[in-house]
Structures are given as structure tokens and as C-alpha cells.
Design a protein that fits this description.
- This protein is an all-alpha fold and 190 residues long.
- It has one domain.
- It is 78% helix and 0% strand.
- Helix 1 packs antiparallel against helix 4.
- The radius of gyration is 17 Å and the shape is globular.
Length: 190
């Protein structure tokens, strides 16, 4: 089997995780690369540097704290949308190996667009749904679930990429069951 096909679940998993939390997948990639658990090819090996690691760490802390305050999270989602798309593009391209040098080509552009599109779609969905959660005072709890989901999806994508489709399917089934249960509860008294 072509190794590039095996990289696709990791690429999509990391890009999707970037949509949930823009900085966490980059931080985990940087941390695991610094620890020697994963190998990053050029130019992505720059994520291992001290400047990149601590810069991403600072961004992750700001994003984490801002996302827990209901009044700030909507503004944060707007500000972080381009960061989420860029993060998704970077982690997608780092996993597919399409970027070997700085010279752009069709494969490189497509890889970056798919990664940015995946992260952007997840991020926009999250940003649209969050005000509803804030109205019912569930914003901080939903934010923690998003952070944990992003971390689990990122680690799975990096360490066991073939499990990503199963993890995404399980998350979709769990979300659907929760939604059905919640809407069923509202219909019962009526």
C-alpha cells in the first residue's frame, strides 16, 4: 500500500483538530517532534525550534483561556479563524509530505487548500454553534470538550492514524445520540 495513503487519515485528523483548537495540534506536533517521537521533514522541522514551540505554547494558552469566557469566545473565534485555517494547512501538508521545498506546485497548493478548508469548515461550524451553547451557559463546558476532542484527535492522528476514521465516526454517532436524546426530552412533555 502506498504510504501516502496511510498519511491521509493523519492529515485529515490533524486538520480537523485544528478547526476545534487552532493551536493545540501544532503544539502537539512540535512537542512530539522535539521529544523525537515523530519526524518532521523540511520545512516543517522548523516547528521543533524553541521559537516555534514557545510561540505556539503562548498562543495555545491565550486561545485556551479566551475560549472559556463566553463574552470573549465569539470574538476569539473570529480572530482565530485564519489561524485555524493556517494551522490546518500546515499540519495537513506536514503529514502528506507534499511540501518538500518552498517551490509551490499544484500538489502543494491543493494540499494547503484541503488542510485549510478542513480546519476552516470545522472552525466555522464550531463558531456558529458556540453562541447557542453560551445562551444556555454551557460555553465553558463545550470549550473543554472541544479541547479534549482536539487533543485526542491530534494524538490519534500522530500515533495511530488508521484509527482516525473510527474515532471521527464514534464522535459523530455520540453527537447524534446526544442530539436525539436532547430533542426527545423536549418533545416528551409536549
Amino acid at each position: 500500500m502506498d504510504p501516502r495513503l496511510l498519511a491521509l487519515p493523519a492529515a485529515f485528523g490533524l486538520a480537523g483538530a485544528s478547526g476545534l483548537n487552532a493551536s493545540l495540534p501544532l503544539l502537539l506536533v512540535s512537542l512530539l517532534a522535539r521529544a523525537g517521537l515523530i519526524h518532521l521533514g523540511a520545512p516543517f522541522d522548523a516547528l521543533q525550534s524553541d521559537v516555534a514551540f514557545y510561540g505556539i505554547l503562548a498562543l495555545a494558552i491565550i486561545e485556551f483561556l479566551g475560549d472559556k469566557v463566553p463574552a470573549l469566545d465569539s470574538v476569539g473565534h473570529l480572530v482565530m479563524a485564519p489561524v485555524a485555517a493556517a494551522s490546518g494547512a500546515i499540519v495537513f501538508a506536514s503529514q502528506t509530505g507534499t511540501v518538500q521545498h518552498v517551490e509551490p506546485g499544484l500538489t502543494v497548493v491543493l494540499s494547503l487548500l484541503v488542510g485549510a478548508g478542513t480546519a476552516g469548515a470545522v472552525h466555522v461550524t464550531r463558531a456558529v454553534a458556540r453562541p447557542v451553547a453560551n445562551v444556555v451557559l454551557m460555553g465553558p463546558a463545550v470549550s473543554v470538550v472541544e479541547d479534549v476532542s482536539s487533543a485526542v484527535l491530534s494524538l490519534t492522528a500522530l500515533l495511530a492514524p488508521l484509527l482516525v476514521p473510527l474515532l471521527v465516526a464514534a464522535g459523530a454517532v455520540a453527537g447524534w445520540a446526544l442530539w436525539r436524546r436532547r430533542t426527545g426530552r423536549r418533545r416528551a412533555p409536549a
